[in-house]
């Protein structure tokens, strides 16, 4: 139409076409995959650095695809967000989390059960039945709400802040612990922090890097200090090296999650980790 028929344009066109096809194929498989239990929770432990005690774990979704193997969430979460199934999917993951909590409470007592952080997507926050659903879920599994931590990514805080503040306030009143995920990744972090009453901050090391001499290191130290002033626990995630961990600890960050300690692992592997660690 435009007169551009150069191979470059044809190439991009083909690429786009094949990614659309790939997405349609995945989208078509998703409902059956949900019903067939192909989506599984993986667990990435979080530790108090000073003692090495586990404080909890983040639940991260994986798709055990019969043909493609284990797929990570970046391959299917965006598809769920576009095809409108994300709330169904997230509800499913939260239920898996509650099911595990129930088992661990039965096996280890409530004191020995790790708290679990689940991820919420932007669309979940704006559903009017979010809090009712979550309350019903923890009641059904007879799990204390404070063991289920809700991670809300910072980018979800951009639109409709009043609605978000309302949702977070309601969730906290119901006993859930609300964590601001990816703190510092966007432009609105400080503004959001000022207005939204969260309980915990999660800071991704990928955004800053950490060495004492770099500007990133100085910013990191200031963020840790700010969190302490605000009396908000801060979990550094994406901690990959001993140097990063030591630096974080030296500036007063108590809690860490990352490949240095453990990758996200399946339930059986996580339960073995649990056996070997004290949980606080
Ligand atoms: P996130 O919530 O920021 O989760 C942290 C991501 O960092 C995870 O990627 C984790 O595997 C990865 N990670 C952990 N430690 C390290 C490290 O030391 N270095 C590096 N480079 N990466 C590390 P993953 O599992 O691929 O998940 C990606 C994103 O998908 C998550 O980012 C989260 O936003 C989303 N997600 C995962 N599960 C769910 C879910 O059930 N529902 C929703 N709505 N989103 C989910
Ligand atoms: Ca998260
Ligand atoms: Ca994060
Ligand atoms: Ca992230």
Automatic annotation (TrEMBL):
<protein>
    <submittedName>
        <fullName>PAS domain S-box/diguanylate cyclase (GGDEF) domain</fullName>
    </submittedName>
</protein>
<feature type="domain" description="EAL">
    <location>
        <begin position="23"/>
        <end position="278"/>
    </location>
</feature>
